[in-house]
């Protein structure tokens, strides 16, 4: 047992030092009936070789987006991660450290969290950001909870363009509260009357940009409507790379911005761990959920960083905390921070531009196929097609040809016939022009 | 030496990435093209590497030394787990791929579920919660959903005073009032107080077992019976499952829901504060309320159930959970096997009791008797010395250790909670005991100055936390902006 | 250009500070005719993504021993490397440091070299070892050069059981010296009269154990014959794992032991970098090639390590150095050291035992095939079969079935008809019983 | 803190690996089964990780700080290169696989050869040498083989006094006497002395260019012509190719053989002392003597030629060379491309001259004029201060830098050779210049104590090297054995 340093000799010696005759004497508080109950159906310990072989077999049973052209988005995006990112996050001092509760020996973590918070604030166009949430969807739910803390109103409206998973996670998180969350429905590319849905008891409106179909919108008018009614505007961004090319929510008047940060530095990993970004106006900071790193000095007057405003948090405030979140996405935030640092201003804008051009080229190629319609006219790296037949089986047919060809409407809105022919397609910088051609050819065949 | 912020290392136009040219295409951004600069700094790759390597060296880590942080289970993180989590076909799977293309990924989740339900002796598990607190939320939501399904409304959840802060915070998020149960003099639930608080408005009890004092709740089976008798449910905080894994099945104790911190018991790295992963196992009674998605096997193929008609807890997370952590945890379990996991619990308890035995004559334990996986001391041993728990903790840093958990649990004055974990060897424990004894001796000898000054050998000395909270500086600003903000 | 931190602005500023008007003024010592000669046929800089894609394509064009059952040895062995090894050697402080010429800030490297030297000495059963050579073959050549320095004789005899690559590298390294190197030939399993080949001018005899065919021998009698004639016995070990199960050369009377250390911690990597081990009797230490780490104290009296006996080396002694070696295999030595440390006494012996049992099982299964003969009766994890037909085409046929089935005689002794039907087969712990069965079945078919 | 040796952390029976059971089989070891124990210590995986992490933290590294070690080219090592070198199908290829199963591997070698020959403008390359010194040996052997083929015997090789130590050592290994050429006052080959030493017993000249004083040999074309005129060959030590890659093709200078340190110019990591890789490019005249193996393309397929009938240099290494380094170097070249490699040389030279310009008024350069990729100073600037080169170097360590190369080249008194490389940014250079100037000022002000004591902020202070050499302790011994050995 390669991870356990004790030996029969050392165990015997230690039991003697403790003054007991057997290990089970130390377990004598456990009811005898339940101690050492036999556990059936699990193997004994395995060699590293055998374990690795098992996982290689599991891996081989999947179609990997690194080998198949991948056009799937929907809140998680297949981006290239520079090798440097993965190397650095595996530094022992990052990987195997705990939450920085002892700041004298955790300045590394604290400083990168401070840098991360600044990057998130800059990208979203907001004043402050926290040190991460679990993911974009849960951050969205937390934003709604926060809005109610801020203005004490009792109703929230969710745009129909909000990703159904964000919607569901938000509904779930607010389910047992004493306020109401209303989720609208919307067709791709269609305009919603969100402003009209705001009443005097509306705490917040949640809108995603680009929306789940990929459509981009100017949120300025909605922000004005919110301001006029005293409601907060919460903007969700599922593809953070879009912020390199698109007017950020902060500039359009958002009060809280939540985002999924996976696109920068974090592998898809079948859906998690990802990293939720959470930014807001400075005046709301004491209502924010999650950890915050702040600047201060040590007794020698040297600039230092520390977790701050802990009075919001569960370990101090217990049932009155702003959130129950504790362990969040530290290492993913680091990956995000490193990737964003590598990109820098010019890299970030170039990456966004490349994504956009790739998606635009894909949209052009695919919508040129007979019977295929483009349902989103203004988009970043994701758009929605309407196919002449249900998209679910088409996606299966594409997979058999080795193309991961987007998300069928039936996956996100099961049972909704009106959206069954929709195919939501994303194209990032990892998509080559040959990949687009392969997709086009395969889709043509699948539709033929 | 100070490491400047990335924002202080900027040069315009510099970047640490090169991108391919890509296709030409007309813009589809409408009028929404970004107008101003983002404000990100430009660094080359070598600068980025050096920056983060330098930052890393300001951190303490398990890989560097002993990390006896009670209740956090800072044990060895095997690199095999990191390796398999990064395999092509696992690390790069998209959560929305057609299920026909992710059969290996779904099988992996199914296998993990099998291990977790078998080890806990409980029939169902929800894998999706993102961390321990999120698992608690999921568990409490299931309890609430069960009452809602029955059309029953209850108002209180009983929580011991010694509980993790997440417990009351979680109960509050489910709309429950928290009713605190005191501990008896042995450090366990005061059964008399517990029974007095029971009633038909009690939705459940949230208990950590072994509890945050490092003790097994001797009356746990009785507690389960009594909460069930009033129609309530038994939620167990599984943060300390490391102490009993392979030795005791929580299902045998009458527990209805328990979250498992994969990043504690099953050693997925803490990563400076996450990501964690908090699957929740459920009893038969609560299983129908477990949230989706869930993997089911049908005729040798695996399906991902994302929607059904039940009265379940809703979606906990954007996708299927912390899959990357599932890979690591499963690799850890397979590496240990059934026999090894039992040994884990035994060695964790052995190591904690060894530290307890080695210190108890100089530092009085908070409670009598053996402990489980962690040893709890109060600051009584320091009484009158002028040195407090924090001073002792900071002095330990100068000795090359990460401090134990301090001032938690709240029920013990000046608490010091030491969890060595099973991956430490005897030599390390002996040396730690020697150093601790030396420090306590110095404190008792009145050498207070050292404790007030400590740490002195660290990248930073004690920080002005008040200043940080009074005038929060939460981000870098260009100098002009910072000056304005300060005005 | 992601690795270059200078920008047009900084370059201009710096040229100005230097006092020149253009970069080419700094190159004015270069004859104008050759400066900036156009370079044709190479592409301009590429993105990380594009580079990675290129190497993935190259990799996909190979049959990987990690996916195909691998029975190839011959001086390089496919062993399992614990993930910890590769993680640790990539620590920045190991990977990106130089030779430890400033010992105050290189104790990490120096201490592991000291530990490595000790491990090598223990495994080979010798008194001292150096801090590594390029590989086993070059270490063998250096050992012959060293023997001549030690006893000033003029002739060396190489056993016919010596791996032809070791033989060739040794002949090459000694080619331009003023002494003679005689290489014998030997059939598999046959006894050589090496003792009879020693004369009064023989500096050394070089013998490999197990030999190139896999045959193990007791070298005690040969060591005695060498001692009687005043010649040195140099023993080469191509599979270092064998030393976990087999009497080490030191115990049999070797004067110098050279070995290939690749089997512990070092990937096959198509033949390099590997790591040469070099051990000898203590009395010869000042004639050793290569670097040596030694223990000492610093001015505060703390135990420390430093490169020592530098007076042997080229940077001090120049043309009178014991060898021209400078950069050697530091990081591979570290990998070896970590893997050997992970194994420890019990792991090392268990690994060797597992290798041996696996090979014995393979030998039994394969030699049971009609017409196949086992030519080596005493062996560790490698043995030689004689096939009923030339082995070269058989190996190709096996490869088509996805089995890497050993080394045909024609690869090592091209043109030698007498050895064309030999197949040298190795089996390590990575070979499963299913792999053996696949090999047996494929071989049967190939021979049918 | 001291880190004990692994041998001091032993517990019997403990191991950091688990192995599968494997097949049963009767022993075939004859009477050769190992009788005694090996003596290796038993540690668990967590201990091993912590041991080596702790050791690592006693090292300086490029990733941590500026490493201006002259003639060593300590530049940034991209992690992309590490990643691709580890791909399945590259990192795990066996050198003796049938060539039909390694076409990708052979193509990679072929591509690397194309880059190297194109960048140098030379027609052939031998990839197999294991490091720079090994490449030199290969090059000199080719020269010797060429003479042997002609039946001609020559005895001398001309080597500048400023040469790397490997140069004379290499020449000696090929049976040549080394005849040293002095430098002129500009730091370059003294042409008059060179011409005087020429003769028909001269096999060749070994020149480093740019030379170890950091200067381009202005007469290099003439040197080539003159050595050719007496029938000798021109060997160039390519250690400093970084200064001219993409700007100057050595083939255009009349060079017959030149090794290339992939671990310098093409940034494969130094790894604390290797592995390196030293391919050698050859002129038409020497190409027939280049050693095998070599990859050749035939009808779109790649063959590995391991044997032919030629009078070539024999096998240099066990297999085909440092393939793992080939992967990294090729990835580096492709990442930079033709345009980027030229920029590499320009920025390397720019950075060195910037340091030269920033220091020359306080620390006199060894030679006048611009330098190439490294700036050379003598200790003249310290004359009379009581501080020597070593003192300055050690003081730099306390300032957080790895020292420059000191006391090399031997021809300059108290030499200090500073090579910043192209991957350092201006801010780093400015700060280094500031620190150097500060130290020189302190030395001149007579603050000698600090220089004698330095370094003081390091894991160890100055070492007793004499003791290490007088009574060499080259391995750990159990205490009894160590005591005996000391007797």
Summarize the structure.
The complex is a heterotetramer, with 2 copies of chain A (448 residues) and 2 copies of chain B (487 residues). Chain A has helices at residues 8-18, 48-60, 83-89, 92-95, 107-124, 136-151, 164-174, 220-229, 249-252, 314-317, 330-367, 391-400, 409-412, 433-447, and strands spanning 128-129, 155-158, 180-183, 202-208, 232-237, 256-260, 276-280, 293-297, 303-307, 373-374, 382-386, 407-408, 422-426.
Task: Write up this protein.
The complex is a heterotetramer, with two copies of chain A (448 residues) and two copies of chain B (487 residues). Chain A is globular, with a radius of gyration of 25 Å. In chain A, 66% of the residues are buried. Chain A has 448 residues and is an alpha/beta fold. Chain A has helices at residues 8-18, 48-60, 83-89, 92-95, 107-124, 136-151, 164-174, 220-229, 249-252, 314-317, 330-367, 391-400, 409-412, 433-447, and strands spanning 128-129, 155-158, 180-183, 202-208, 232-237, 256-260, 276-280, 293-297, 303-307, 373-374, 382-386, 407-408, 422-426. Chain A is 37% helix and 13% strand. Chain A contains 14 helices and 13 strands. The radius of gyration of chain B is 25 Å and the shape is globular. Chain B has a seven-stranded mixed β-sheet, with helices on both faces. A three-stranded antiparallel β-sheet of chain B has the order 10-12-11. A two-stranded antiparallel ribbon of chain B has the order 8-9. Chain B is of the alpha/beta class and 487 residues long. The chains are: A alpha/beta (448), B alpha/beta (487). The interface between A and B is large, with 213 and 204 residues. Chains A, C: The glycine cleavage system is composed of four proteins: P, T, L and H. In this organism, the P 'protein' is a heterodimer of two subunits. Chains A, C: Residues 1-439 form the Glycine cleavage system P-protein N-terminal domain. Chains A, C: Its EC number is 1.4.4.2.
